[in-house]
Design goal:
This protein has helices at 6-10, 19-37, 54-60, 78-90, 129-138, 162-171; strands at residues 43-47, 69-74, 96-99, 115-120, 143-154, 174-180, 187-194. The chain is α/β, with parallel strands linked by helices.
């Protein structure tokens, strides 16, 4: 199995016209819309495989209400996790916690969930279809009532699985909030809201493993 150099992968964000940069802007627009739709005094965010955290941190850094957001970022790569910590500190985001942990294990979310926003950005394209289905089925265990899940998935040569993914969310009791799929890019960004009762986190188990 080829191992992706995730630090090099992140360099595509340096090009504002790249698909990754456009995807980030789409994700950030969804985060902005979610924040604008919530008037809670405190909101909890759990971000899986968060990398340098800029998807979320870039939004919080420019919002006057960032102090109401308590976020935990899960990232195994020590360098990327360190970048997220430094950026959060530089922006004064003292309610952001970066944990070096395996986001594919439910135990890593203890103390953070149930969360009001669960971010699965950069996950669904790096796991098997079986793990992806298992992840969607696990998400109600990470969610608070009415929580939103924000996810991304690329369009691959072998086909576009996003219609199937959206169907899996519906089967698990989620309503679709938005779906961004520009014709001239390979990325897709979805937001789904839990429309049924959430489930308890339960015992530790692995629900996804990266394949690259």
């Amino acid at each position: 199995m080829a191992v992706t150099d995730w630090r090099a992968w992140h360099r595509d964000y340096d090009d504002p016209g790249s698909d990754l940069s456009r995807r980030r802007r789409s994700v950030q627009a969804s985060i902005e819309a979610w924040l604008d739709s919530r008037d809670d005094e405190t909101l909890t965010v759990a971000s899986a495989c968060s990398g340098d955290g800029r998807d979320l941190l870039g939004v919080l850094a420019r919002r006057p209400d960032a102090g109401r957001v308590r976020a935990r970022l899960l990232e195994l790569d020590d360098v990327l996790a360190g970048e997220a910590e430094r950026y959060a500190a530089a922006c004064g985001l003292d309610r952001v916690d970066v944990r070096r942990a395996d986001a594919g294990r439910t135990a890593s979310y203890a103390g953070t969930v149930p969360a009001d926003l669960v971010m699965m950005c950069g996950v669904f394209g790096n796991v098997t279809d079986d793990d992806l289905r298992r992840t969607v089925a696990t998400l109600p265990r990470l969610c608070s009532p009415g929580a939103t899940v924000l996810w991304t998935r690329g369009r691959f040569r072998e086909g576009d699985l996003t219609s199937t993914i959206r169907g899996w969310f519906a089967e698990e009791g989620f309503d679709e909030v938005s779906f961004d799929a520009p014709d001239d890019t390979s990325y897709r960004v979805g937001a789904q809201r839990l429309a049924r009762d959430p489930e308890p986190l339960g015992p530790d188990e692995t629900f996804f493993t990266f394949t690259r």
